[in-house]
Design goal:
With 616 residues, this protein is an alpha+beta fold. The protein has 18 helices and 34 strands.
Length: 616
């Protein structure tokens, strides 16, 4: 299925033409009907003579509603640029044409409406004006057809020309990752939340779990409808309505993206090619504040010009768009930017989730050129170096291609010795340079830790993860590979270099022995004096000589284990364990008794109920 979208100046007969063609009035709002002017997006559908079924998106023509027009232009396969024969090319004709050009929509028809109001000589003059306007745009080779929605003249020819265009289109590419930019979110009584949009890339099916970006909320597909007909599964390029469960319609806004879970991370900055339209009233300067339109999302953004200080009207360049809120985009997505009154330009996303780039830098510009025109391996490698270590799914989202294409590229890069896989299941990938850097950081981090704390068994795992700046799944994979290569050694709670073995000097050993004698003198009520270095005490704890019950109470391990065993024994068969009973068993004070019981609570050996405990 394909989507056809209208474009053109206000009152040039877009909605009237669609109604005459389909029998469906695309104007939904009472205000639209009373004013005779489209304000919001309208929708219709049609089966062509060849049997091909199309969806139609009708957009507002008035300059005040250009934002709504931009919401509807994304995802369009065929554009119908509507020009009224009695008025010819008007300001919004030019702006809408510029937007179609920026979005790369190069298949379309120019439809001259209101043919019945002019004679042939005038029609020929207007047709010539339109053809001159089209020169140098993506629609410069589009055919022109003239119609009258009032008397039906030319509608059959128009329908045939549209059918010819549709049957000549290639099927939509599927990357396996569906993306539905939401243009409406509402509630239907008895059904719940419904969203609509044009599906890009993969397919959606009933029962599937989906994620709403950028919020990250989850929902499940209850039903799918295309042209008021239910479907179990819908493929790319289809305009559809999705009935969702598990989420309220107020939690989904126009501009959100519905997709499958876990593969796409929304961006707050992305690199892009950028072109300023010839009719732009001014150049786009470095740090130019604009409104970004991507998919159905509208968001404030800043344009960072990466080469030079500005891009002049009619010129192109490299930019980085930085947004005030996150926006879910993939490589290859088209976008448009406007200021408060004018469309300035647009381009295509090169790299989502991009780090801040150095301006006027040869290496940066060379990298962007490689991403724009390089091989799939080069594109994948450059995407990897910005987000590594990464999964295949994450790379697919960043590179804007399928997981199969990424897997093939990674296999080639691996055979060339440019990347390696990480983790017990090879689920993460990293560049060789990235791995060498990460290995160096890991080794130097632990070396520094051991130098500062030579008597500790190792660095706490969470502290080590923080130093590597990795999220937990990636850290798990990296740790497994670092261990396999004997860069690190780990236990349940710490990490160390494989050759690290804490040893006490003879003086420290004497200090430790004296401390052990001190706390062993009164077995169940050890001294709380601390004539021992804190690092020595930590080592005694690490190697199991002592148990640190609280800040100032330390037991010889044998004494604590004896107390633990007897306390648990006193609570068999559901008997209460009380502070009084424990004090009587060991002849110790309330202070020690309470500390031991609270420690056992923390180990989930006992549970507290009022002043009593019970064995778990």
């Amino acid at each position: 299925m394909f989507v056809v979208g209208t474009a053109g100046h206000v009152d040039h007969g877009k909605s009237t033409l669609i109604q005459a063609l389909t029998g469906i009035d695309p104007d939904r709002l009472l205000e639209e009907k009373s004013r005779g002017m489209t304000i919001e997006l309208g929708f219709a559908w049609l089966t062509l003579p060849s049997g091909a079924e199309i969806s139609i998106v009708d957009v507002p023509g008035h300059e005040r509603f250009i934002k709504n027009m931009l919401m509807g232009a994304g995802g369009v396969d065929v554009a119908l640029l509507i020009v009224a024969a009695d008025e010819g090319v008007m300001p919004q004709t030019r702006e809408h044409l510029a937007i179609l050009d920026l979005l790369g929509i190069d298949t379309g028809l120019i439809v001259m409406t209101k043919k019945d109001l002019v004679d042939q000589d005038w029609l020929d003059l207007v047709t010539l004006e339109v053809q001159e306007t089209l020169e140098g745009t993506s629609l410069e080779n589009a055919d022109v057809v003239a119609v009258s929605a009032e008397n039906g003249e030319g509608l059959d020819e128009f329908r045939a020309a549209l059918d010819k265009l549709i049957t000549g289109l290639l099927s939509h590419r599927s990357t396996g990752n569906p993306r539905l930019p939401v243009d409406r979110s509402f509630t239907i009584s008895g059904f719940g939340t419904v969203v609509t949009g044009t599906l890009a890339d993969g397919s959606l099916k009933v029962g599937q779990e989906v994620e709403i970006l950028p919020s990250g909320q989850r929902a499940r597909i209850r039903s799918l409808q295309v042209h008021e007909t239910s479907h179990d599964q819908v493929g790319p390029g289809t305009r559809l309505a999705v009935n969702l469960s598990g989420i309220g319609h107020s939690d989904i806004d126009r501009g959100d993206l519905l997709t499958t879970v876990g593969w796409l991370e929304s961006s707050s900055a992305f690199d892009a090619t950028f072109r300023v339209i010839p009719d732009a009233p001014r150049p786009v300067r470095h740090n130019h504040k604009v409104t970004l339109f991507a998919g159905t999302r509208e968001i404030p953004a800043t344009v960072r010009v990466l080469e030079g200080d500005q891009i002049a009207p009619g010129s192109s360049g490299w930019v980085q768009l930085r947004t005030t809120e996150k926006v879910p985009v993939v490589r290859g997505d088209s976008f448009v930017v406007r200021d408060t009154e004018n469309t300035l330009g647009g381009g295509q996303v090169l790299e989502p989730n991009a780090p801040r780039r150095k301006r006027n830098d040869a290496e940066t510009l060379s990298r962007l050129q490689t991403i724009a025109s390089g091989s799939s391996e080069d594109v994948t490698f450059n995407a990897l170096t910005d987000i590594e270590p990464a999964t295949i799914a994450q790379l697919a989202g960043s590179a804007g291609t399928s997981a199969d294409d990424i897997e093939a590229a990674i296999s080639t890069l691996e055979s060339e010795g440019r990347v390696k896989r990480l983790g017990s299941g090879n689920e993460f990938v990293i560049s060789i340079g990235g791995w060498e850097s990460l290995t160096g950081i890991a080794a130097s981090t632990l070396s520094s830790f051991h130098k500062t704390y030579p008597l500790r068994q190792g660095m706490p795992l969470q502290d080590f993860r923080g130093q590597l700046k990795l999220k937990t799944p990636a850290f798990t994979a990296v740790s497994a590979s670092l261990s396999a290569e004997e860069v690190i050694a780990t236990d349940d709670a710490t990490v160390r270099t494989p050759d690290h073995a804490p040893r006490l000097s003879s003086a420290q050993e004497s200090e430790a022995n004296e401390f052990m004698k001190l706390i062993s003198a009164d077995r169940y009520s050890p001294s709380t004096e601390r004539p021992v270095d804190i690092e020595i005490l930590q080592l005694l704890s690490d190697r199991g000589d002592v148990v640190r019950i609280s800040g100032d109470i330390v037991y010889p391990t044998g004494a604590y284990e004896e107390m633990e065993s007897k306390i648990l024994g006193s609570g068999t068969d559901g008997q209460e364990i009380t502070i009084t009973n424990v004090r009587e068993i060991f002849g110790t004070s309330r202070k020690y008794t309470l500390a031991v019981l609270e420690y056992m609570d923390s180990k989930d050996l006992t549970r507290r109920a009022g002043d009593s405990r019970f064995v778990r």
